[in-house]
Write a structure and sequence with these properties.
The chain has a two-stranded parallel sheet with strand order 1-2. The longest helix is centred in the last third of the chain and has 17 residues. It has four helices and two strands; from the N terminus they run αβααβα. By secondary structure, the protein is mainly α.
Length: 117
């Protein structure tokens, strides 16, 4: 919320990685340092920007976009982020479908000989 460069880095670096994620993957966008915004009286990354990013990366969740503004200093909304995650993930875990996660590479690890040095 206080660093526009971090927001743009998130969009430029993280969002492209989502092409490797499962279709039902849910991403939570969390704006941090809300306490600094309150003390400064303004935010460099607006709530609208955060919500727009959350909508962009969550095509499978057309309801409330998972965007939270938090403060680790005061604890504001931190619990809500985890409650959202547990409420989103728990029904998926109950189906018994293991998550395949994200594959960052298609390469298989190199085989090593008998020596691991």
């Amino acid at each position: 919320m206080t660093d526009e460069d971090s927001f743009h880095t998130l969009r430029a670096v993280f969002v492209p990685l989502l092409s490797a994620a499962n279709e039902d993957c849910s991403c939570v966008v969390v704006g941090t340092k809300k306490d600094l915004v309150a003390s400064r009286g303004r935010s460099t990354v607006t709530r609208e920007d955060g919500v727009a990013l959350a909508q962009e990366v969550n095509k499978m969740n057309p309801g409330r976009p998972p965007y939270f503004e938090t403060s680790s200093l005061t604890g504001e909304n931190v619990e809500e982020v985890f409650e959202y995650l547990f409420n989103w993930c728990e029904p998926k875990m109950a189906t018994g479908r293991p998550s395949t996660g994200i594959s960052l590479t298609d390469e298989t690890p190199a085989k090593r000989g008998p020596c691991s040095c």
